[in-house]
């Protein structure tokens, strides 16, 4: 009758713990109830089993929804929550995205023309030096290599290697023009790449629900998040639990995941080694309650216990225990 979702339900071998477990055990002790835990891998399976009277009480952070309330009973809510977004901080457009961005922006075509100019300049320098510089190599491959090095030095650093000034002030003036052209080419290439990378970063970074259009979003199967994503006509990929969701996000199989706010925040908190971050404000606010099979007589007694846990500070103590101040 439990579904693992830290920090509400955590199962380690025969040991069962968590906020929902602590709360349930307090209620069971007050009501002198005997119970056994039956774990479920999927939240949807737990809901189905509760509706079909296979279990009496569903102990986890189960969101109260209209569809579920039509099939199962709920106690008084004991936790206010909602949905948030988790993203991979290291996930970016990559080299493939940069190449596509440069192509779509028309920069690759411009780079092609620049490459042609570099080839022509290399050949031109070679013919020029062979014609006017008696000390220039007569070996064509070596001459082309020397001229290519000269052209690339001008294009990348704005400074040519040491060269003879064969034509006095006119030659020096011509060298100055080449320097200006090289600096302009280098500035154009670097600024275009920076511009595309900035645009890709802004387009790929997820801050809120508005940024999820066209993205692949991971959700827990049978969860409120899955219903929300489907209703919003977004692409949802269901997984069995938080561990699988986090792995899919870090592996780049999904762009983001949506889940219960406390679950995501707790997971990011206990896994600082992972590049996971919870972003955006809370949306689709909801409440957690224990679910009961339709034929159970425990609803009133458990609801009284929930109200008492609010009033006597038990829920406040559990909140501080699992989430800090």
UniProtKB/TrEMBL annotation:
Statement: the UniProt record of this protein carries the keyword Membrane: yes
Domain spans labelled Ionotropic glutamate receptor C-terminal: 4-325
Solute-binding protein family 3/N-terminal domain mapped to chain residues: 1-325
Major localisation: membrane
Residues spanning the signal sequence: none
Compartment(s) where it occurs, according to its Swiss-Prot or TrEMBL record: Membrane
Keywords, comma-separated and alphabetical: Glycoprotein, Ion channel, Ion transport, Membrane, Receptor, Transmembrane, Transmembrane helix, Transport
Membrane topology listed for this record: Multi-pass membrane protein
Membrane-spanning segments: 110-128, 169-189
Pfam families: SBP_bac_3
Source domain of life: Bacteria
InterPro entries according to UniProt: Ionotropic_Glu_rcpt, Iontro_rcpt_C, Solute-binding_3/MltF_N
Name of the protein in its database record: Transporter substrate-binding domain-containing protein
Taxonomic lineage from the root: Bacteria, Pseudomonadati, Pseudomonadota, Alphaproteobacteria, Hyphomicrobiales
